[in-house]
Amino acid sequence: MLDEVPDALILRDSNGNILFANRQAEILFEYSQSELLSISFRQLIPSLQDSSQLPADSISLLQLPPRENNSELAGITKSGRNITVEVCSRKLPGSNTPLTLLSIRDVSNRKLFEESTRVNQERFRLLVESVQDYAIYLLDPQGNVLSWNTGAERIKGYSSKEIVGKHFSLFYPQEALEQDWPAQELKQAIAQGRFEDEGWRLRKDGSRFWANVVITSLFEEDGSLKGFAKVTRDLTERKKHEQTIQEKNEELEKALRAKDHFLATMSHELRTPLNAILGFTGTLLMRLPGPLTQDQEKQLRTVQTSAKHLLSLINDLLDLAKVESGKIELASEWLVCRELLQEIHRSVQLMADVKKIQLDLIVSPPELLIRADRRALHQILLNLISNAIKFTESGRVVVEVHRRNVDSRVEIEFRISDSGIGIALEDQSKLFRAFTQLDHGRSGKIEGTGLGLYFSNKLAILLGGRIQVQSTSGRGSTFTLILPQE
């Protein structure tokens, strides 16, 4: 029965001789039963000189002893390992020689844990006291300050002597006190275990700072309220930064509204006179008012060409402004690819004929459909095909469109290939930048704003697609528009 007791039990006489040891004593001190019976008890616990040092009458042979008043002593095992043990004793009556029964429990791990806990608590206390970026302090259940760290002194301006014992509502502005914020915050911390908020708080000198506040409720083991831990961080600079950003955003929104108004006005005020100029020059060139001399016709065609160029420039700028401001509205519909390309073909045929460039359309299958915004897709393809013709002196431009499956996705691919001047590899990354025109080494200046590809790429992204380019200088280029399909 005694071998089943979880503590080591040793029976000794007044001279320290061991008369009995249970199995747990063998395990604890690393001796066999016979070895224990041949040594003195003082060899196991050298610091114990007299059993009168130990709590008496605390051992029952059939029951674990109560250990509230047990002595902690240093013991040593057979291998020389130092251990800490709790020892209590009881003198056994009915014997001519005084006998003492000792109950011994190994508490080495507990002592190590207690020491580790003590060290960690001391480190934490020193850490909290030294933190300067956070005000960390404790409150009693009524909200009075119990402790005050260096960060609290720096942020709030009070020394520990000035503030300990004062109520924490001292840190709140008048409008917060009128709404009973301090009491409400503690109530929420008790109910939820934690409360967090941001708002204005007061320093000792009366100045305000924007604070992030976290209050954590602390409870005793029996569930009664012990108090609160409060952490306050000064976020005034962040608040100022946010206010600055908000003001800048408001200014930006105001500027955007002004820009939208300007664009709407410019759209009307610039396009109207240009359309009138184009209309009148067209009428004159048709000789409806009367015959023209050769010189008059030449000058009128110059006016007409310049007006068309200016109108195109204005349209590009206005379209660009709409894209960048998110004002373009897209409406998807089913389109017949062949019909759309034939429409564009008619628009650019004259340009191709003038340069004697062959323009081929290949649609596979011929009845291929695509779901997209008609105006946006038309604009992208028109820009890509026009560029191909513009930068090709002779040869051909081929426009191919087909459907392909990629990883369970369906895509429609438009490929525009030319036999033109090509684009050097180092210049290809510049193609989709706004107002960028590459130097192709041509003697004549290429007309345009440098917005065509930039605008086309923006539209492609809005359609959920992308534009890719493959080109070799002097050997032509291939631009590919890839659009996903549902």
UniProtKB/TrEMBL annotation:
Q: Output the Gene3D superfamilies linked to this UniProt entry.
A: 1.10.287.130, Histidine kinase-like ATPase, C-terminal domain, PAS domain
Give the UniProt subcellular location, in the record's own words: Membrane
What is an example of a GO molecular function annotated in this UniProt entry?
A: phosphorelay sensor kinase activity
Task: Spell out the SMART domains in the cross-references.
Answer: HATPase_c, HisKA, PAC, PAS
Q: Which residues form the Histidine kinase domain?
A: 265-486
> Which portions of this protein are annotated as coiled-coil regions?
238-265
Q: Which InterPro entries match?
A: HATPase_C_sf, HATPase_dom, His_kinase_dom, HisK_dim/P_dom, HisK_dim/P_sf, PAC, PAS, PAS-assoc_C
Top-tier EC class: transferase
- Might you give the EC number(s) for this enzyme? 2.7.13.3
Instruction: Give the catalysed reaction(s), semicolon-separated.
Output: ATP + protein L-histidine = ADP + protein N-phospho-L-histidine
Cite the PAS domain residue spans from the record.
1-38, 120-175
Answer yes or no on keyword Coiled coil. yes
> Which controlled-vocabulary keywords does the entry list?
ATP-binding, Cell cycle, Coiled coil, Kinase, Membrane, Nucleotide-binding, Phosphoprotein, Transferase, Two-component regulatory system
Residues of the PAC domain: 195-247
**One GO CC term on file:** membrane
One Pfam entry for this protein is HisKA
The name under which this protein is listed is histidine kinase
Q: Which organism is it from?
A: Telmatocola sphagniphila
